[in-house]
Automatic annotation (TrEMBL):
Residues 326-347 are annotated as: Disordered. This is Dehydrogenase. Residues 129-238 form the GFO/IDH/MocA-like oxidoreductase domain. Residues 8-120 form the Gfo/Idh/MocA-like oxidoreductase N-terminal domain. GO terms for molecular function: nucleotide binding. Transmembrane segments: none annotated. InterPro entries: Gfo/Idh/MocA-like_OxRdtase_N, Gfo/Idh/MocA_Oxidoreductases, GFO_IDH_MocA-like_dom, NAD(P)-bd_dom_sf.
Length: 347
């Protein structure tokens, strides 16, 4: 790309997430949003870019990269067409609705030598970024357990996948990323209570490669909206609220007790609580800045397609476990680009 020329970007899909992508792309430094694909057109009338009904029309405008924010079931066909036309892509999570489709996307973009990423936005949440830095520095000591809760009302925009692929993929990716460890096994139970084809509630017990225990509770059936990540270790526990981007540390206390009955219990004690002051930039903006930099050839921290594939593999193992009623092993990811870049130090 010649110095000073803006990157030409396209957007595919104007659903709830697509409109957010459009807002950010419209104001992103160094980028011009030149066109949008959506069969329904611009229902809000707020976009400055032309809206077309076919991907071919967008490609004819000449774009450097595109953001894929259409339904998950269409990710594969749209992504393969972009790769075939030499266009880089930021694909909303999950990468695809099946391991096979995700694998084909990885192979297509890798063989074309194109920059491609997955929109696992929680990696850019200020609370989780701060938490990961602290874990890498060994502030928690040995990590024992990661517990996530992600629940809220059913989003009527989702029709093609269940809660595992749509919501639990957030927790799978952030857990592997924040700890620097891959999943080794999962056991899951799902239910469907809303009368839809797909599951709308899942409970997961899993294990990471280093033995860390993982629990995920995810559902679309609660009027309470909650996004919580709790990591417990040798020196206490971190609590990240990704709705408010707050991070709190609860330290294990070192206060002796004079109460004989409690002295015999060699557990932990309640210590100091610290809520960290964290600069709070919008995660979606940070995600777009990182991807823009990658397309420009700069060193940048994006979620690669291989990492996105790994998350789909773990999600598929959850569904297999729930269907078969057994624990399912998850083999190590292929290639050099595993989730373990940024391995956590244990103190």
């Amino acid at each position: 790309m010649s110095e000073g020329r803006k990157l030409r970007a396209g957007l595919i899909g104007l659903g709830a997430m697509g409109r957010n992508h459009g807002r950010v792309l419209s104001n992103l430094d160094g980028v011009e949003l030149v066109g949008v694909v959506d069969p329904a057109g611009d229902v809000t009338g707020t976009l400055r870019a032309p809206v077309v009904s076919e991907l071919g029309e967008l490609l004819a405008m000449g774009i450097d990269y595109a953001v894929i924010a259409c339904p998950t079931a269409l990710h594969e066909s749209v992504g393969l067409e972009l790769a075939a036309n030499g266009v880089c892509a930021l694909i909303e999570k999950p990468l695809a609705q099946s391991v096979e489709a995700a694998t084909r996307l990885v192979e297509a973009f890798e063989s074309a030598g194109l920059v491609a990423g997955v929109g696992h936005i929680e990696r850019y949440n200020p609370a989780l970024q701060n938490l990961r830095t602290r874990l890498e520095a060994g502030e928690l000591g040995e990590v024992y357990q990661v517990v996530t809760r992600r629940q809220g009302p059913f989003p009527h925009r989702i029709a093609d996948v269940g809660v595992v692929m749509d919501l639990a993929t957030h927790d799978i990716d952030l857990t592997a990323w924040v700890t620097g460890q891959e999943y080794s096994s999962v056991s899951a139970r799902t239910v469907s209570r809303s009368g839809r084809l797909h599951e709308d509630m899942v409970a997961v017990v899993g294990q990471l490669a280093d033995g860390t225990m993982v629990n995920h509770l995810v559902n679309w059936l609660s009027p309470l909206k909650e996004r919580s990540t709790v990591i417990t270790g040798d020196r206490g526990c971190f609590v990240a609220d990704t709705l408010t981007a707050d991070l709190t540390f609860y330290a294990n206390g070192a206060i002796d007790t004079e109460w004989e009955a409690l002295r015999a219990f060699r557990g932990v004690a309640e210590g100091d609580m610290v809520r960290y002051a964290i600069p709070k930039r919008e995660p979606l903006l940070v995600e777009h800045e990182r991807f823009r930099d990658a397309v420009e050839g700069k060193q940048s921290d994006i979620v690669t397609l291989r990492q996105g594939l790994r998350t789909v593999q773990v999600a598929a193992a959850l569904l297999e476990s729930a269907s078969a009623g057994k624990t399912v092993g998850v083999g190590p990811s292929s290639g050099d680009d595993s989730e373990q870049s940024g391995r956590v130090a244990v103190g």
